[in-house]
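Database export, one record per block. Field names are fixed; values are copied verbatim from the stored entry.
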Amino acid sequence: MKIVTVIRRVPDAEARVRVEGDEVVVSGAAQVLDGMDEYGVEEALRIREGGHDAEVVALAVGPEASDEALRTALAMGADRARLLVHEGSLDPLTTARLAAEVVREEEADLVLVGGKQADWDSAALGPALAEALGWPVVDWTTELTVEGDRIRCVHDADVGSEVATAPLPAVVTTQQGLNDPRYPTLPNIMKSKRKELRSEPAPKTSAPTRVLGRTVEQRDRRRRIVDGDATEGARAIAELLREAGK
């Protein structure tokens, strides 16, 4: 069995960024493995440790510096890594098409993708990758079991949680609650430096979407002050919210 876990390098959620004009500048912010993707790496490792004869391959599509995030995945326990180097801007659809070529080449049985990408604030990558591959997808998974040539997943739905099954190969998107990702230990960090990390230029492709502009939304505070005791204050706030809702 071969499991490909797709990862991204994103600004650290606790890093300080600055706004210049209408642009959010992240050039000085620390870059890390996307937290959502950590759940995918951890789940792949748990499937392997649970008795399945599985190879875990970490895959990234992005700038050369994405090798840092891949090294984190290798230090967590992935067997090897691949990087498609693309220095320009990327959207989820283009990333999915590029990643799909590697997944086919690897002849993967299961692909794990973070449920939402922190820098895009988008949940499109997993479904877009499944569409590019022509595979079934189970999103927002909180429990995953491999049963022969099928998977059984518990995932979030509009009405709560539901159980879904799908044949392999398949794409699964991961989220908080699926597991608790491990921290890379120093010995595993040293071992990761000896693991294979294959870097190659991404094929030239035309993006299906174009960024026409970016703006940073700004709102002035109303600075309303509510007087009175707790009961009077609660009533006043409820009335203000009711009026704002109209």
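Remark 1: The chain is about 30% helix and 30% strand.
Remark 2: The helical segments are 35-49, 67-76, 92-106, 125-133, 186-192, 230-245.
End of record.
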